[in-house]
Amino acid sequence: MQVKEKKSIKEVLIEVTSKLLEQKGYYGTGVAEILINAGIEGKKGSMYHHFKTKDELVVAAINYSGKRQLKDWAKAMRGQESAQEGISALIDNLIQRLQKTEYRSGCPVSPVALEISNQNEVIRIACSNAARKWETSLATYLELNGIEHGERKAKIIFNLIEGAFLLSRIHHDVENWEAIRESIELILDS
């Protein structure tokens, strides 16, 4: 039997905020809702003990989301026979995530980036850093699988993924993901 480690209030706040930001964005995620979902309703002091402001918590949540996404991507692509199969497995993983949440969740950073990146430089940089790490990870994966110009092709694939997240949330379907899957071979072989 595996013993589950108890998480600190700080870890819970970060994880809860990450999930809420992904589903509701920056402005849709209030401090009161974070506290309720973290199980510390009405205890703002608990949050402010760890984070001076909501924005500081948001940056921590974006950093957490970025790392979690990297792990999820690596797990999905691990052990595949080719880069094309790895990207296809990643697409399957992302589709399942969207469908499991009834299209409420997708990219863990883009809702915040779209809302506030022009107003808050610290949050914009956190979003940018997460996205760059995803692109770099994807480029490394492609290059390790023998794909030439992996960095450029990773940017193309990453842009397609981000667009598909947005369109899936709007349309509540995965049609665009299938279009990406059909295009992967062309991109990788070009």
Description:
- With 190 residues, the chain is mainly α.
- It has a single domain, classed as Tetracycline Repressor, domain 2 (Orthogonal Bundle).
- The chain is built from 9 helices and no strands.
- The chain has helices at residues 9-24, 31-38, 44-50, 54-77, 83-100, 110-116, 121-144, 150-171, 175-189.
- Helix 5 (83-100) runs antiparallel to helix 9 (175-189).
How does the SSE layout of this entry go?
Elements: H1 9-24, H2 31-38, H3 44-50, H4 54-77, H5 83-100, H6 110-116, H7 121-144, H8 150-171, H9 175-189
Features:
about 190 residues; elongated; Tetracycline Repressor, domain 2; about 75% helix; 9 helices; mainly alpha
H/E order of the elements? HHHHHHHHH
Beta content comes to: under 5%
The unreliable regions are none
What is the top-level CATH class? Mainly Alpha
CATH superfamily: Tetracycline Repressor, domain 2
Query: How would you sum up the global shape?
Result: elongated
Compute the number of structural domains: 1
Number of helix segments?
Answer: 9
Please report the total strand number as a whole number. 0
Query: Termini distance?
Result: 50 Å
Task: Give a short summary of the structure.
This protein has helices spanning about 10-25, 30-40, 45-50, 55-75, 85-100, 110-115, 120-145, 150-170, 175-190. The chain is mainly α and about 190 residues long.
